[in-house]
Amino acid sequence: MQQRQSFDIALKELKLKLLRLGGDIQEAIRLSVSAFEAQDADLATQVVQNDRKINVQDHEIEDLCIRLIATQQPVAGDLRKIVAGLRLAMDLERMGDLAVDIAKSTIRLSGQTLLLPIDEIPAMAKLIDEMISEALNAYVNNDVDAAQRLAALDDEVDHRYRKLVEGLFATTSNNPNHATQAMTLAFCGRYLERIGDHATNIGESVIYIISGERSDLN
Amino acid sequence: MAKSMSVRNLNAWYGPQHTLKDISIDLDEKMATAIIGPSGCGKSTFIRCLNRMHETAPYAKVTGEVKLGDENLFDLDPVDVRRVVGMVFQKPNPFPTMSIFDNVAMGLKLGGIRKQSELRERVERALQMAALWNEVKDRLNRPATALSGGQQQRLCIARALAVEPDVLLMDEPASALDPISTMRVEELVEQLKNDYTVVIVTHNMQQAARVADRTAFFLSGELVEFGETTKIFTKPSDSRTEDYITGRFG
User: Which domain covers residue A60, as residue numbers?
Assistant: First the structure.
């Protein structure tokens, strides 16, 4: 039995780096939502500043994947892990950017009294948090079932996003002065909805790693 | 030009050693098929059966059927078989005492072509197909051994092509060459598969992935998996194929 010890160690390193990035992204999203709910501009600023560290991690993962492709000529399952690793990093990095967008919305709203109903946003955030945990678990445990469960959660997020937008429209039609704030809140909903889509992409990448099959969970 | 080969229940032995076990495979025309597998898996024996060279080894035996088009190779004269099923070996083996021109012309002369103008035309065509013409056209009478290793290998390919075979067998044709010469041979295979049925044995996974339309994985004399190269290298069906191509055993 011939081993590719250093390559296997590098693949484990890739997995660990992705999980670390995933954990940091989940934390960034939690903080951005907390800052939004509490209208805490300082906490939101912290999320914006932390994004630089997330980008550094993303670049490290990308560099590792490129190095492994260039030096190890991966094929079959190894190749799928690395290609999916690049996609996972890209999805996670985008999720981090969306957390920053939520934080910037909070900074934009700071000092204003929220005049509109936003109940759907914490509810969406709770579902998103569950989706990220599920996506990372699916990746760690090579769990196709966990990956597939993301589709139903994403449907629920989409449903709540539609409800949020409908509620905001209904309110602003009676109070046109609230349009600017409604737009910012609708964008926050949209950012969360997009985070959910990236979580389903992670699920699709996990299915690709395990089976080599393409899937559509969105 | 370019006939398909159909192999059914091919078994081969060296004395008591059963080196190929019931191989059935279709090698389609105008396609390059790569044969991969660890040392001793039977891949060289397999292609040596395809031009009846296996039988020339002492104590060798072969059973089964190899069809070239509609004809069973084992019903034909072995010399005729080797004219229509050409072979290129791992180490370039030009005739050392002959010129570049004569190396390519020899097979044609043995085939009864005597007219100088026809010989010149066919030698030039073969050298052009082997992507060697531009490098040797001004020194055709120089000894073949004056060429570099990569050029010698392309000369051997030209020699095989000169007699216009239906099938070209290549047994690790680039394993003794430097990376530039290897790339030239691979580019050549890309060209040749438009006109010939090409079967290439290689230890180089990336080479198989680059040049072959289909790939067959042999292990311990058995054909484990055969399919589209892209599928074999991204999503093999058999875990033994995955273990081999990812370097986890071999």
Answer: 5-211
Min Cα–Cα distance to chain A from B243, Å: 9
CB count in 10 Å sphere of residue A38: 12
Condensed to tens digits (0 to 9), the pLDDT of residues B137-179 reads 999 999 999 999 999 999 999 999 999 999 999 999 998 888 8
Q: Do the chains contact at A74 and B246, CB–CB below 8 Å?
A: yes
Inter-chain CB proximity B235 and A212 less than 8 Å: yes
Residues of B within an 8 Å Cβ radius of A: 205-206, 209, 233-236, 241-242, 245-250
- Domain extent at residue B138: 5-245
Q: Which of B234, B247, B248 has the CB atom closest to A79's CB atom?
A: B234
In a domain? residue A176: yes
Total structural domains within chain A: 1
In whole angstroms, give the CA distance from residue B47 to residue B28.
Answer: 15
Identify the closest residue of chain A to B208 by CA–CA distance.
A75
Residue of A nearest to B207 (CA): A73
Tokens for B97, please give them. Answer: 């005492």
Identify which of B248, B223, B224 has the alpha carbon closest to the alpha carbon of residue B49. B223
* Minimal C-alpha gap between B17 and chain A (Å): 23
| Mean pLDDT, all residues of chain B | 93
Query: What is the nearest CA distance from A35 to chain B, expressed in angstroms?
Result: 44
Q: Which of B36, B27, B12 shows the shortest CA–CA distance to B240?
A: B36
8 Å CB contact of B248 and A79: no
Task: State the DSSP code for A113.
Answer: P
B160 closest CA partner among B130, B199, B119:
B130
- Split at pLDDT 50, 70, 90, the class of B1 is low
The pTM of this model reads 0.84
Q: What is the CATH number of the domain that holds A105?
A: 1.20.58.220
Q: Is residue B250 part of a domain?
A: no
The domain tally of chain B equals 1
User: Does residue B72 contact residue B7 with C-beta atoms inside 8 Å?
Assistant: no
- B206 CA: distance to closest CA in chain A (Å): 8
- Please report residues of A whose CB lies closer than 8 A to that of B237: none
Q: Would the CB atoms of B233 and A75 count as touching at under 8 Å?
A: yes
Q: Give residue A2's pLDDT.
A: 53
> What ipTM was predicted for this assembly?
0.76
Task: Answer whether residue B48 shows pLDDT above 90.
Answer: yes
pLDDT tens string A24-54: 999 999 999 999 999 999 999 999 999 999 9
Backbone phi, then psi, for B249, in 5-degree steps? -155, 165
pLDDT of A177 reads: 84
